[in-house]
Every structure is written in C-alpha cells, then in structure tokens.
TrEMBL record:
This is DUF6096 family protein. The lineage of its organism: Bacteria, Bacillati, Bacillota, Bacilli, Bacillales. Pfam families: DUF6096. It comes from Paenibacillus thailandensis. InterPro entries: DUF6096 (IPR046078). It comes from the Bacteria.
Length: 113
C-alpha cells in the first residue's frame, strides 16, 4: 500500500490518498500530478524540481503527518547527498502513484530507494 524511501537512517513511508491528491492538484495549478512525471517522457525534459518536491511532500503526509515543506526539502537534500538523483526520485514517485491507483499494478517499475 505504500512505497518506502530510505534516506540516511530513516525510512519514510510514502502514499498519496485521494484527499492529498486533490490538494496536490490544486497546488500544481490544476495539473494532474501524474502529468508532472510524464513530462520527461513527453518532452524529454525533467519536470520542475518544485513540482517533484510538492509531490514528495504530499506523499509524506499519510504516514509522516506534520512533515512541512522545509522538512521535505531537507529530506531531498539528504537523499541527494547520499547519491540519489532526480531520476531515482521520479521512479519512487511513479511507484507512489501506482500504489495509489493511478496506474494498474505492474505498469511501472517498482523501486525502493
């Protein structure tokens, strides 16, 4: 039901319930959050980092309630400091969307970072 993101010695459970997905869509100016991730396939360019981190922040709320956006930035900075990168983050977020019912099971490559 959730995706695990390991950063440092911490394990974060990521999930995007319907209420968070609706709120996230509003934050993204009405854009479906999946379209943010599909931007890479469609145009060959990376999505905006702000949008990716908004998705990560929304995904943290179910099991890490109260994590604010600045804490999300710190999690991402630590993820990168440990060798993570935007492509790996996108893979994790794709799995979050798959587990939240945006895609049928088996249509995205699963990953644990």
């Amino acid at each position: 039901m959730f995706t695990i993101l390991n950063v440092g010695l911490k394990e974060y459970k990521l999930y995007l319930p319907a209420a968070q997905a609706v709120q996230l869509e509003k934050q993204l100016g009405g854009m479906n959050p999946v379209m943010v991730l599909m931007e890479m396939e469609r145009s060959g360019s990376f999505p905006q980092i702000t949008s990716l981190l908004q998705i990560l922040h929304a995904s943290l709320q179910q099991f890490n309630h109260g994590t604010n956006f600045n804490q999300t930035l710190a999690i991402y900075d630590e993820f990168v400091a440990e060798g993570g990168n935007v492509v790996e983050l996108i893979k994790v977020l794709m799995e979050v969307f798959q587990k939240a019912g945006f895609f049928p099971k088996g249509t995205t490559e699963g990953t644990n970072a």
